[in-house]
Amino acid sequence: MIRSWSIDNGTDSNDNISVPIQKLNWGFGPIFLITVTCVAFILNVAVLLLFICVRRLRSLFALYICALLLSNVIFCATNDWMIVTNQLFGTWPLSYAACTLHMYAAWVWTGVTMHLHLLITINRIWAISFPHSYRNHHNIKSALIMMGLITAYVHIMCLPGVVLDALYYRVPDGCSLNTDKMIVWDAVVMIVIYDAPIAVMAGALPFLWYQQHRKRRLVSVTQANELTRKATAVAHSSAPNEVFEKGTRERQRSGHRGFAVLTALTISVILSWTPNQIYYTIAVFRDVDNAVVRQFAFILYSLQAIADPVLIVLTFQEASAVLKRLTLCDTSTWRP
Questions:
Q1: Tens digits of residue pLDDT in 299-317
Q2: Assigned domain for 111 exists
Q3: Fewer CB within 10 Å: N-end or C-end of the chain?
Q4: Cβ atoms within 10 A of the Cβ of 330, count?
Q5: Residue 214 belongs to a domain with what CATH number?
Q6: Whole-number Å distance between alpha carbons of 25 and 89
Q7: What are phi and psi for residue 285, nearest 5 degrees?
């Protein structure tokens, strides 16, 4: 979650005062936001199209990746450009309805994006801790249901505050949620929707590392036993064994791929979002105003939308290979 404020002067939008607009403010803040927004939008759209158009990249786990990329695209289109506009003009120059859309994106859709990151962690916990259940019950339908439920959950928690603000509590100047009128809601949403996902992801990563290491040792022992058994196996059993081993290797590659993506995204989320969440969580319970900390946290927070597609391509080996062939103009990439 991010509250609108100026990166140049550190003024929180809760304290904005409408002033005559004389010229656009082309300071560091607007230029930084424009650059980040454009780069993030282009990268997320490009990687999303890569997963959609290249058949070999389509998998169940890729559904979660595509959902996260799409969420970033929506956020850039509905929120970031409004922040840029606010910074350029020095005050809120758009309509009341546009401000409501801005608050929806800043509060609700930010929570959706956070929980899509969390859903990737939940997916890996399920896959590593309960592999038989994962193979038997995880399919497109279950993945879409989980995404729908988690999106509905965030809306149920966050949307009431946005609606109440739009109907009753909106401050006349600037564009920000009047949380002073919804103190309890603000505290609950901040902890449950914004802080909890980061804490769960950070806590789950060591557990998943341990489970992955344990699984690899178990696979090594199993493979050694299989080699010993094959040495004494009859010739007619070799073909079924090859089919079995091929399926086993494919599941192992899929698990390693998902774990690599999860690790990269989780570390990036912790580094990018934690300072912002710590600052604003403290601000819910006590009066703090540190412009340097706030600006530093905002910069890190903004870069996460760029980090997501970059890390996905770098850790998703198939995506890296496809992208490399595309840069070499290899048209076979698009073939089924």
A1: 999 999 999 999 998 888 7
A2: yes
A3: C
A4: 11
A5: 1.20.1070.10
A6: 6
A7: -105, -15
